[in-house]
Recover the amino acids of this structure.
């Protein structure tokens, strides 16, 4: 008789588990994917051209050029928090005036809430050893961000803004170049 009860209990438990999972709205990884904010690259911060020190600003004076070439996120949900794994690929190319040593490409990550306020802000550098004999470098930058929430609907308002961090002069150069001047 005990054997019959166990034989009945296993299918019943499986049926109840399937029914409960259907009511729960899916696993936390499925919900995490649904609310996972894709990174957006700030328009004027997708690429930058850095010049050597001094007055010259023609193509011979370029120390390096850099660009964000790819980005993406994966997310995990836990109680009251979404952990976002942000991956960015940044490439750098040596210019005619590259200097020996480490080339540092500054970039930023900003988390923006539904009201449009920056709630997290971080700045970093991607480092390369560029030279005439090794003119290209690619870096994959990986960051963990923690986004709090009290209701799942809170997660829909988060946005992640990324970009390179040009100086005012580098920004002006990028805008002029893009406009064809």
């Amino acid at each position: 008789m005990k054997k019959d009860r166990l034989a009945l209990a296993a299918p019943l438990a499986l049926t109840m588990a399937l029914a409960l999972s259907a009511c729960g709205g899916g696993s936390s990884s499925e919900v995490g994917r649904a609310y996972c904010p894709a990174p957006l690259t700030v328009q004027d911060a997708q690429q930058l051209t850095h010049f050597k020190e001094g007055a010259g600003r023609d193509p011979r004076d370029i120390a390096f050029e850099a660009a964000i070439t790819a980005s993406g996120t994966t997310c995990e949900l836990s109680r009251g928090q979404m952990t976002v794994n942000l991956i960015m690929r940044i490439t750098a190319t040596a210019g005619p005036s590259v200097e020996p040593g480490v080339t540092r490409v500054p970039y930023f990550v900003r988390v923006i809430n539904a009201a449009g306020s920056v709630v997290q802000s971080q700045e970093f550098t991607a480092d390369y050893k560029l030279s005439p004999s090794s003119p290209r470098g690619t870096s994959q930058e990986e960051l963990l961000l923690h986004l709090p929430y009290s209701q799942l609907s809170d997660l829909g308002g988060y946005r992640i803004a990324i970009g390179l961090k040009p100086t005012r002069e580098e920004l002006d150069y990028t805008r002029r170049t893009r406009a064809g001047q």
Observations:
- The first helix runs from residue 2 to 23.
- The two ends are 89 Å apart (CA to CA).
- The first strand starts at residue 39 and ends at 41.
- The chain has two domains: 1-27, 36-179.
